[in-house]
Amino acid sequence: MNKNIETFLGCDDAYAESGIVLFGAPFDGTTSYRPGTRMASRTMRAESYGLETYSPYQDKDLEDYAVFDGGDLDLCFGNTARVLDDIEAFTDGVLADGKLPVMIGGEHLVTLGALRAAARKYPGLHIVHFDAHTDLRDDYLGEPLSHASVIRRAWELVGDGRIYQFGIRSGERQEFAWAQTHTHLTKFTFDGLGDAVEALRGKPVYFTIDLDVLDPSVFPGTGTPEAGGVTFMELLGAMLQVAGTLDIVGADVNELSPAYDQSGASTAVACKVLRELVLALCK
């Protein structure tokens, strides 16, 4: 008899042998509209077995690589600062061991904890951000630690000109105006991604994917759906261009809320995105 441990599809190798470490951050304590992303990581693990470990897009198989799934972090609901500290501490340990952390959110604020650890280890860190939303508010209803302000907090870590945003189609007027002098923001599409990738070659990059960058017709299972998003194939092509080319030192996939898509299709999409991301990072 073996211990029954549920991991993401094919990611059941030993920690010591693995170059990539998956972990879940089940937190949605600052969600501004519809909560539920805390259920994403456990749902994705359970549903991932509907997929194959083999990717015909990349001609790569998860069974050929060593990937460790560390499960979900035990995060304290009701204390956002402590949640971010715990995520930062875990990511710190993974980076210290020379491994690449890949986090499953959770709401988008969880990215900040991982970014703090990555920015400390890599002082020249840059960020590539796929999302429907700017996430550049200085605060949301007076709270600076919010999923609506996560990229603004990220900017405080890395500074001007080091954040590249794509697919953005929602935000306050002031956020778009602020981005003109502080980030590289591309509205609606992935236009210009090739130029960004060329500019980022040889630099440490953290890659964060908010799944609501996808159109709600593809991905309705999210807390803040925004019409006018990209297709799965557009996201896949852009994601492989970033993850398969650049020096990625950390990554995450976030904002799946499984309960808002009873068909399970959104979870299947999220699982496929994660499979392709992990395989692209297996160089």
How do the helices and strands follow one another from N- to C-terminus?
Answer: EHEEEHEHEHEHEHEHEH
CATH topology: Arginase, Chain A
The top-level CATH class is Alpha Beta
Determine the strand fraction and express it as a percent band.
15-25%
Query: Which whole number gives the mean pLDDT?
Result: 96
For the record, the count of structural domains works out to 1
**Biggest sheet descriptor:** 8 strands, parallel
Label the structural class: alpha/beta
Number of helices: 8
- Radius of gyration, in angstroms, nearest whole number: 17 Å
Distance, first to last CA: 35 Å
| Shape verdict | globular
CATH architecture: 3-Layer(aba) Sandwich
- Which regions are unreliable across 5 or more consecutive residues at pLDDT < 50? none
Strand line-up in the sheet with most strands: 4-1-5-10-9-6-7-8
Query: What is the number of beta strands?
Result: 10
State the share of residues found in helices, binned by percent.
25-40%
CATH superfamily: Ureohydrolase domain
Detailed description of the structure:
- The chain has one domain: 3-Layer(aba) Sandwich (Arginase, Chain A).
- The longest helix has 17 residues, at 80-96.
- The chain is built from eight helices and ten strands.
- The chain starts with 19 loop residues before the first strand and ends with a helix.
- β2 and β3 (60-61) form a beta hairpin.
- The chain is α/β, with parallel strands linked by helices and 283 residues long.
- The protein has helices spanning 40-47, 80-96, 110-121, 150-158, 173-182, 193-200, 232-243, 265-281; strands at residues 20-25, 54-55, 60-61, 67-72, 100-105, 126-130, 163-168, 184-187, 204-210, 247-254.
- 33% of the residues lie in helices and 18% in strands.
